[in-house]
Amino acid sequence: MLELRGRPAEPGGRTERERIGPRQVLDRRHGDPPQAGGHILRKPAPSDRRATVVELTDSGKALAEQIKHLWCALAKETVAGLPADTVAELPGLLTALTNNVDTRRSRRPQGDSAA
Description:
By secondary structure, the chain is mainly α. It has helices at about 10-20, 20-25, 35, 60-80, 85-100; strands spanning about 40-45, 50-55.
């Protein structure tokens, strides 16, 4: 996914995070809907002309902002009615659940010193 932190992203970062090959990131056999829609711009990286930098266009930034607002509204709706202490515990619980199924991490539970 394109980084939305206000700076261009190189697809190489995606290959590391998602453990996919660079060709899969740049594969355009099925088209490039975000670029075709005018939401992203691809151009050669200034430091390495073989690399591609992906930037959000103004319409892409506007769309990202809309998506952000929708996700925030969904998050608020999801936890509506839960006690504040339960909501505060959710990030830790979700991290633990993710770690339980993340194949890139050790399967041994935290605090388990048995080897």
